Amino acid sequence: xxxxxxxxxxxxxxxxxxxxxxxxxxxxxxxxxxxxxxxxxxxxxxxxxxxxxxxxxxxxxxxxxxxxxxxxxxxxxxxxxxxxxxxxxxxxxxxxxxxxxxxxxxxxxxxxxxxxxxxxxxxxxxxxxxxxxxxxxxxxxxxxxxxxxxxxxxxxxxxxxxxxxxxxxxxxxxxxxxxxxxxxxxxxxxxxxxxxxxxxxxxxxxxxxxxxxxxxxxxxxxxxxxxxxxxxxxxxxxxxxxxxxxxxxxxxxxxxxxxxxxxxxxxxxxxxxxxxxxxxxxxxxxxxxxxxx
Amino acid sequence: xxxxxxxxxxxxxxxxxxxxxxxxxxxxxxxxxxxxxxxxxxxxxxxxxxxxxxxxxxxxxxxxxxxxxxxxxxxxxxxxxxxxxxxxxxxxxxxxxxxxxxxxxxxxxxxxxxxxxxxxxxxxxxxxxxxxxxxxxxxxxxxxxxxxxxxxxxxxxxxxxxxxxxxxxxxxxxxxxxxxxxxxxxxxxxxxxxxxxxxxxxxxxxxxxxxxxxxxxxxxxxxxxxxxxxxxxxxxxxxxxxxxxxxxxxxxxxxxxxxxxxxxxxxxxxxxxxxxxxxxxxxxxxxxxxxxxxxxxxxxxxxxxxxxxxxxxxxxxxxxxxxxxxxxxxxxxxxxxxxxxxxxxxx
Lengths: 293, 347
Known about the structure:
The structure holds 2 protein chains of 2 kinds.
Chain A: H1 4-35, H2 42-58, H3 64-87, H4 95-117, E1 133-135, E2 138-140, H5 142-164, H6 166-176, H7 178-183, H8 188-214, H9 223-234, H10 239-259, H11 264-279
Antiparallel strand pairs in A: 1-2
Chain B: H1 10-14, H2 20-39, H3 42-67, H4 75-93, H5 97-116, H6 125-144, H7 146-149, E1 155-156, E2 160-162, E3 165-167, H8 170-191, H9 195-205, H10 207-212, H11 217-243, E4 245-246, H12 253-266, H13 271-295, H14 302-324, H15 329-342
Antiparallel strand pairs in B: 1-4, 2-3
Helix pairs in contact in B: 3-8, 3-9, 3-11, 3-12, 3-13, 4-5, 4-6, 4-11, 5-11, 8-11, 9-11, 12-13, 12-14, 13-14
């Protein structure tokens, strides 16, 4: 006999987790779409954002909302610097080299954070209202609920912006054909930089949310692995795919954790990944690139 | 100064070591390898063993990534498979270590071929991610198949025996690790003088062209995975004999990244590069440790900084080499050689 209340509560928590996955995956997909770089350091940038936020809240002078904004802005700046210093020189190199560069970058960021803030796990300041949310009878922890709502709003805003705003069009043009975009007068290097800045900002926001739910530690970058599953399942260059796969992976992970035990979480998501790679190698919504000689 | 080497027949051109000077240095190296445990202390023997194990595994990954062009982040997991096989055989069956190592290699090769199966449909980064999935799943098996692997507490195995002697100390296990690694290296170097090795290189350079030339992609890609994981399995077996305690945490994803980094830093698609990369990446943390020992009297907190700095240096080296010397240490080595060959002229 299935306990439906329990089932739906787990489902809600799963959707909440999935919302955060979708948000981080959005940053991932943006970078991939524009620059064809798989950013393995996404989890580490997310961690950095959460730590920067902690750094701002540690000096109690600033109001929380300002700290959040400052943390997001700072991480965005760092993202821009990373693009300019490390990713730009790698333009035109094989994608595997760029992939490894981002792995190296992740490692540097972990070291940096440990150097500044120490290796021990820490808690973020409590800023999300504590009263639990009830949807019908189902209980949902307030943090996950608010995180989901924030993620949903940010995602909606971004999707709208990319449809209409000129920058969004420039981004889609760059993704479609770099050379053509260049010759139509689009400042492609600028697009690259801004994509990294925006992605780092998204990651910082997601990091603050993730950190306020589960605490922060330098190992938080492992979160990036789950996001990797999300983007592969959804298709590396599909924003919609990231959204749907994010929710899907969140649900599967939470159900596996609840019914089978915590150690099955990663197994479940990675089994899904293998399944998708075998059945649809380019993800559920990704474009299949045809290779010609 | 040397202008060039004149080769008079095909055999001389295909020789692994083409000049007399090179062969001379090789003899010196061989003597040094044999004499090392007699003249060095425990610590140096320990380091030598560690370096040799990493060299074996890195060379295996180099065959797959550097020569066949398939990126894998599962090398550490394959090593784990080898290590568990060796530990179980040593504990439950008690077969001689040569047989154990061979079986470890074959077992890992089998697993590697299964992991390599997606390589026909996906390549490049998707393949790298598929291998991450494989290593996550293998880690789960190591940690949860408790009856066989001992779960999270892992396995503790007895030392290897050679002619009735137990090999406990690093200086003693060295006598297993060194010959096996040297053998593996010669195997790898010779592989690329054969049809199979040439097929690998053709696949790396352009897989569709290779297929048009009549190279069976699935077969050779799987073969590359099998050989590479065979190396990993044997290296894992050596690792097991060396440390003798095997837990699921012994072979984290970070270790796979380490091997890939060693291949890149050393130089992809060069046997010498794999060797140099593995030595370099193993020694850097040790050198940092020594540096900390030197600064501690002046700066007592140095020890606390060691771990983060080590992580940063690791990442920094990957970035540095990819941006400034993508051909790796092997290219630097070639440049140095060229300089001395052509001296006093400019290279």
